[in-house]
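Handout, section 3.2

Students often ask what a structure token actually looks like in practice. Rather than define it abstractly, here is a full record for Alpha-mannosidase. The first block is the sequence as you would receive it.
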Amino acid sequence: MPTIRSGARDHSPSRVQLEAVVDISTKELYDAIAFENKAGGAWTQGWAVKYRGDEWNREKLKVFVVPHSHNDPGWLRTVEEYYQERTKHILSTVVGALRKDPRRKFIWEEMSYLHRWWQDASDSEKQDFIRLVKSGQLEVVGGGWVMNDEANSHHFAIIEQITAGNLWLRDTIGVTPRNAWAIDPFGHSATMAYLLRRMGFANMLIQRTHYEVKKELAQRQSLEFMWRQGWDSANSTAIFCHMMPFYSYDIPHTCGPEPAVCCQFDYWRLVRVGQAQRCPWGYNPEEINEGNVRERAMLLLDQYRKKSTLYRSNTLLVPLGDDFRYVTPQEAELQFTNYQAIFDYISAHPELKASVQFGTLEDYFSTLRDEVARSTKSSSRANEDEVPGFPSLSGDFFTYADRMHDYWSGYYVSRPFYKAVDRVLEHTLRAANILYVFTHAKCRPKDTSSFPASYSNAIVSASQNLALFQHHDGVTGTARDHVVEDYGTRMHTSLVELQAFMAASVEALLLQQQCKSENFRQWYEPEESRSKFNMLAVKKSVRLASGQARRVVFFNPLEEAVEHVVMVVVDDPAVCVFGPSWASVDSQISPEWDETGSNLSTGRHRLHWTALVPALGLATFFVSSAEGVADGSSCKRAVPARIRVFNSDDKFSCPNGYSCSLETVETLEITNGFQTLGFDSTTGMLRSIQISKAASPSTLVAVEEDVAYYSSAGSGAYLFLPDGEAKSLVQAGGLVLVTEGRAMQEVHVVLKTSIGGGELSRSARLYHSGATGRKSVQALSVEINYHVALLDHRFNNKEIIARFKTGIDSGRVFHSDLNGFQTIRRETYDKIPLQGNYYPMPSLAFVQDSRGKRFSVHSRQALGVASLQTGWLEVMLDRRLTQDDGRGLGQGVMDNRPLNIVFQLLLEENVTSSASFHQKLSVPSLLSHRVGAQLNYPMHAFLGKIVESSVVIQETSMDTQWSSLASAFPCDLHLVGIKALRPSQLEDVEYGLLLQRRGWDESYCRKGGTDSCSTLATSAKVDLHSTFSNLVVSKVTPSSLNFLHDHAETLPGRKGAGASAAGIGIVEMSPMEIQAYKLMVE
Ligand SMILES: [Zn+2]
């Protein structure tokens, strides 16, 4: 029989040009599966697996037993606690055990732990480790800092965490990983397949996918496939993926379909010897001896043969490990010697037509590829894009269920406070890396104590702390309380350090004098700060006496110039704002409302004005007291906003200096000329969005906002198990405060709810465009801020959502994003319970209809989203749960913190046709990309010292503007990041640059809806030698996304991808792609 058995093929023709033609799409799997959870016998979630016995006559069964130990960098213990108690012993044990016998093998994944062990290990242990890796006995798989979560993590942070681990691995051990290993993330993202491919990985492995999906793929012999991006019509992104077939990665669920049998081959469960839990199926392991070896070998081989029938080749992978295993030499010896005895018996009996040995992932995948090449007589080893005989697959593996109706959608939302901090650290690190590159170029540090090299440790440590939190018990919110505090403290420490660095960078870049420390006056401080790791950031108030002024410098970390209505907080409303050339600009002053609603007005004031800040650049504004302004400058006083009040009780008193009117109309509106928002004044909830267009009738869409909750007695950190449908929380009578001025309009409501009062408030804002009359990106979307504080028992076992019921006839289809990198089609199925219809939403979800209307919700943090009825989108905001959900954590989620969850809502009309509605592939419009970028990569503000305004005018040692871009980027080209690859390096500095060409829907408005977008990547050439005005780039080298493979155009899948042009620094990329470059700077 042919080795490569043909599995069921499920061809679906391509309906649209962009879409990849694949054998299997996960959408088709979901349509096909009944989700009935039928009992499967010994293999509970499968079937009674049988084989004839002649399957291995021509090509024997080649089994690789792969010893591994799953080390979580934080979960029930902190990363350092685990390291001290377990991991340092594990690494030493493994090195010792492998040294004894060259037939023994092992794989290791987490570089955070290896890096930590490297500080403690003896020189001989390190030499042995390196020798074992080079000899192939020990393989580093994945080699990321952690094994990252794939639902809540943003692609920037995934690249950062894999690169941090891979670069350390290359620099320290001298190897480059080829095979990725993700056995524990709770569902798997197609973005990982893309990123790993573009990092030069040849193969990947995944485990936690829906048990029904595993079964369906197993029945089609399609658990191994070429995983390809849904948008990849040119077939350049596919990576060979192995999906494990069973319930878990532990030993009972990896040797074959019958856990009661496999458990008997976990020798750390040996009665009276081993220390792992006894086998729960009643049969325990027996040590191998001459008397039982045949019986034991045949029992195990039977499982291997059964498992092998689920796959197409006769090469079989059998992981051998569990969480924190191989701690002691005794444990390692029990596993290695007992298995070796079984292997020896099988080798001595060729009639069994099997070879069984310890192996690494590389052993498995290379043997499989050899077998494929032999049987198909092709040279597949040389061509990693194709593994003949295996199906192609597109789509992703969310939402994960491990049994029954236990869907793991709760962790999309658990600990939302820290999911928000994660993204703040991410965008702050990105911004700091950009500033590091340009201050390094300007200041040319002579040693590591001079600026900015003096901050290199802070930058490296921030990257490692961000990387650590991407762990699948970090950003997921599934660790114990004290571990969450450890992650939070690490992120907070790094944020403080990065902000200090950025404040110094602002001074260095604006300083006209040489960049020497004696010229630094520590002029700037960050405008926002947190008093503690678990507190919200607070804006510092600008306090000015007569004749005083203060600089406010904005850093725009985006590749496009940004026009934004900015806001600082002031103590005294009698102020005026001056622009970079000391011309007074229009500004608005309004009261700052207390989010908890207890005092309504805080006594401080919000000062808004329009700032235009150059791309990757700085702009200085001056906030001055309106009194005693220097001669010769005219001060345009900030204009007080008009306040309208609805549902006022007697407590409301109008803040001094403002005029307030008490109103009772039912429908209230705010408008900025581009959009009009309608609200129900009795509840304060949004009711409609109207887009005004100059030449045609305006479009009005109902957008009914609601805040509701699910109740549950089963939900926990991982699982969402609602008792029923969500119930609305909102009651009529909440205090509604409308603030209207020339810069900003706002409807703020302190929600009156059925549970209590004051814990929830909502602000909806429209911003105006600048005096030029141009439409800014900000003016075309709606800012929504939910303040949520589920701090006491009244919210126990409640999960709070914001729901938008739109008039868009979307059916039950919506789109949500994967890792902020791409969007994917979702469909709500009745055959799946409510919790299974929830999906990750790291940054975006939208619904659309055939008439070309689209409603999008952009988020700046990871949350969960669903569309339960046509036109609906709901996003879960927070959850407070008293119970554990039985997945090992052993606690509920009760450490809720006050949160501000910010969305940008975008209502769009398809201006050309409705073509995109019929595509399975729907991508954001260019405007939507820009809205998302401005939300996720906001400007950073810094306050200068208070000075006499007359002095500021005469100040000549400081520039007021600075820009690093010599020419504008095309507006579909996004700077993912630029950074010094080794920040402490002083000479031969290498910068790593990552660019993404956005994939966008051309049927929505070109130019991104505004006038400020003038070129697209199709027409504009970007030459990296001359892109940055402050960098003299001497050499541009295309690289893989982890910067390990130079000239990555020669990597599989990159043939002809602008290789020649890239070599001379011209950027040529296909839509959706991310490309890395190394820049050498003179
Ligand atoms: Zn884990």
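Discussion prompt for tutorial groups: The longest helix spans residues 481-510. How would you have guessed this from the sequence alone?
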